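#struct-pred
JK: can someone run the complex with adenosine monophosphate? inputs below
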Amino acid sequence: MNICLFCKIISGEIPAKKLYEDDEMLAFYDIKPMAPVHFLVVPKKHINNLLELESSDSALIGRLFYKAQELAKELGCEEKGGRFIINAKKDGGQTIDHLHIHFLGGRALRPKLASWFMG
Ligand code: AMP
Ligand code: ZN
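RT: done, C-alpha cells with the ligand placed:
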C-alpha cells in the first residue's frame, strides 16, 4: 500500500489542479501558494528525495526541469523570472517525501536563499 500523498495525486485518488501530465511526470498547482505562480513538478516514479537518486534517474530530472521552465514561461514568468527549488530531507525543509520541483514566480522574492519560502 502506497501512502505517499503525491503518489495518490498521480493515481487520481486525491484531486489536484493539474497543469501538465505525460507518462513520466505531473505538474500541478501548490495547494498553499507562496507566490502568485506556485506549481510543483513531480516524477510519476516515486523517488524519495534528491539525495536518493539512481544514476538512471539523471535524464528524468533534466526533463522535469525542462518542463518546469516551459510551464513557468507559459504562465507569464519568462521576462521577470522566478525560483526553481528542490527541498531535500529534514534539514532542507522537505515535508512531502516524493521528489518535487517547486516553481515560484509572479512577484519579487527576497534574494536571500535562507528566506525563500517567506519571499
Ligand atoms: P516541500 O515542503 O518542499 O516538501 O513541499 C511540499 C509542498 O506540497 C508544499 O508547498 C505544500 O503546500 C504542497 N502540498 C501539500 N499537499 C498538497 C496537495 N494536496 N496538493 C498540492 N500541493 C500540496
Ligand atoms: Zn510518492
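RT: quick notes.
The two ends are 37 Å apart (CA to CA).
The chain has a mean pLDDT of 93.
JK: thanks, will look after standup
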